[in-house]
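Changelog note: in this version the structure field was regenerated for every chain. One regenerated record is shown below for reference.
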Amino acid sequence: MDVNTRGRPPEFDREAAVLEAARLFWRRGYSGTSTRDLTSAIGVSTSSLYSAFGSKAGVLEESVSFYTRRYTNIYEKALAAQSIRIAIDELLRELIIEITQPADSHPGCLITSAVMAEGPATRKARGDISTMLMRNERLLRARIRRAIDEGEILGGTDAEVVTGFVQSIGQGVSAQSNRGVGRDELLRIADFSQRAMWSTYTR
């Protein structure tokens, strides 16, 4: 062994470690996930875990940051579509594809997990999720207002109501996915919801 590497903690894939930690927090909540659970899942020692993340709360915060980036990217990409129908269809479709990925590639929906109902240690993580949700909602609302201004959606339509409706679909299919409803069924639910929406808000 090289003398310069003796005693160093083993290298690990940080993104894979964060994904594994997010999965544990989603399933068990923050208080239900021990440091031992985390070190066992990630494959590092307690000292290496604290060296990398600072604390158990630090692991959660990085897991949430990883999670929020994935969802913000979905919103930004979908809402860049020229047509509002395509934009919302892509948004809901990509959200459903994301939440129904195999367990080894997705952390689960932290929005509807026990993490969101726990105490002071998770305050920053809850704040980060809330910030992500509000930012994504603002992006959606701005895109809907543009569609109203450009005549894609009937004039006089309340952008807040349409935004809330789309957000409710997204959060609803996420909750359904947590209950085990499959991708194909969730996509059918999203398609039905959109048909109802467009029959109301377009000519």
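Spot check on this record: Residues 110 and 131 are 14 Å apart (CA to CA). Residues 1-9 have pLDDT under 50 and may be disordered.
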